[in-house]
Design brief:
This protein is an alpha/beta fold and about 450 residues long. It contains 15 helices and 16 strands. It is about 40% helix and about 15% strand.
């Protein structure tokens, strides 16, 4: 960790360099170092951190810019070789609801530009994550005159199709994303359905969209010893474990999971539900949205069959995956489904919603089962069939481990670098690597 940084490259904007020298990555509303499973901290945090580190490992340094949420946070932190995390002062140095961050974006862009001038850093390409970062990148073009690629991660259009009335995304977000579809120099879609939706419903130019999924750390996420992992997390050796990993958010389908588990519990005597995500107090009791989940389990009489673990660091997640018999991903919408692929890499079968990128990452009947997000009984039947059939579970686990290897971060980073190179070279179309991962 460091508070200062000296850039070795040219400091004059407009100075021509030989190719691509450095990337500015923007994640305004959430830091890649945030604890997973908390509010606004999930797959995107992992994506930004892991992509940046693997891009840097292939010879291209990255600076990640995020909003300062604590006065004690250092301006610059090194998170891996040749990747710096830079905290930008824009708005109060405390957590702020992401739906109110729009008004701070001009200040964020201005402070990014001033940081570059003050430290003598020159960037050749911007990679923006989420719509707030996309708007920031558009503002920065006034200062830097460089292109940017944008990954939405989720879109208001897709989320609003499946979210209840009280959880709809704001009109401002929807309108801003429509503008960004037109303004962005390049767009990275997480799956073929997202690419098609951007083209056909939001009228994006097809030639500037590449389908590149997020990756998985196949060295970290790999099969483990089930007995040892269960002992480590305090789960009985003979239990049938259903695992959920993610934010406690309606979009993650927690209601579907609870209804499905109630049916599974009736059919499988030793079934246990493990929930990784949400917040626990100092006594280990659920608080916030997770407390609502606990209360519902108390009402249904299932509380004794559920274990709450709260948010966990990424390097701890493989222990939970290896302890599970099946991983449930009941999301209403997922642009990729990182949890599903992490579970597969660990050799654990998955029961997931037939939604978004999960359709392309989970192979029906081979690495797991897919069910409509709004049919708990279908999720329950699929989960119970895996819990009852160890041969089926073992086969799906082996298949999943093999299938997950195509999503290695090395492969994903190489394709993203190809997009950066095309942008830096002045291209404004046909950015994609010919060897697409979903091909």
């Amino acid at each position: 960790m460091t508070d200062t940084y000296t850039y070795p490259g040219p400091s004059v904007f407009g100075y021509e360099t030989d190719g691509l020298r450095r990337v500015a990555s923007i994640s305004v509303h959430t830091s890649p170092l945030a604890s997973l499973g908390g509010k606004d901290a999930g797959g995107m945090n992992v994506y930004v951190r892991e992509l940046s580190c693997h891009v840097a490992s292939q010879g291209l340094p990255v600076d990640i810019f995020t909003r300062r949420t604590s006065p004690d946070t250092p301006e610059v932190q090194t998170i891996c070789d040749n990747v710096n995390l830079i905290s930008i002062a824009a708005g109060p140095p405390e957590p702020v609801d992401k739906n109110t961050l729009h008004k701070y974006l001009p200040a964020f862009a201005e402070q990014m530009a001033l940081y570059a001038l003050r430290t003598g850093v020159r960037y050749d390409v911007i990679h923006a994550h989420y719509w707030l970062s996309g708007l920031t990148a558009e503002l920065l073009k006034r200062y830097w005159n460089i292109p940017y690629t944008l990954m939405f991660h989720t879109t208001a259009h897709m989320k609003n199709r499946v979210s209840p009335a009280g959880e709809q995304e704001t009109p401002l977000r929807a309108a801003s994303e429509q503008r960004l579809v037109d303004m962005a120099d390049s767009i990275i879609a997480a799956n073929p359905d997202e690419r098609a939706d951007l083209i056909w419903r939001q009228h994006a130019i097809a030639s500037k969209i590449c389908t590149i999924p997020p990756g998985v750390d196949v060295d970290l996420f790999r099969p483990g010893n089930r007995s040892q992992c269960r002992q480590a997390v305090g789960i009985d050796e003979n239990a049938k474990v259903v695992l959920f990993v993610g934010r406690i958010d309606p979009i993650k389908g927690i209601d579907t999971l609870l209804s499905a588990f109630a049916q599974v519990a009736e059919e499988v005597d030793d079934a246990v539900l493990a929930i990784v995500g949400g917040d626990l107090d100092d006594a280990g009791e659920p608080v916030g949205p997770l407390a609502v989940v606990r209360d519902r389990l108390i009402e249904s009489g299932l509380i004794d069959r559920v274990r709450f673990y709260g948010s966990q660091p990424q390097d701890r997640l493989p222990v939970f995956y290896a302890a599970a018999d099946v991983v449930s991903v009941p999301s209403r919408y997922e642009s990729f489904g990182l949890v599903a692929v992490e579970a597969m890499a660990c050799g654990v079968p998955v029961v997931a919603s037939k939604a978004g990128g999960l359709i392309f990452t989970v192979e029906e009947g081979e690495t797991g089962f897919l069910a409509p997000w709004d049919r708990p009984e279908a999720h329950a039947a699929a989960i119970a069939s895996i819990l009852r059939d160890s041969a089926l579970a073992d086969r799906m686990g082996r298949n999943g481990h093999a299938a997950a290897q195509r999503f290695s971060w090395q492969t994903v980073a190489a394709q993203v670098i190809h997009v950066y190179q095309r942008l830096a070279a002045g291209q404004r179309g046909n950015f994609c690597d010919k060897e697409e991962i979903f091909a």
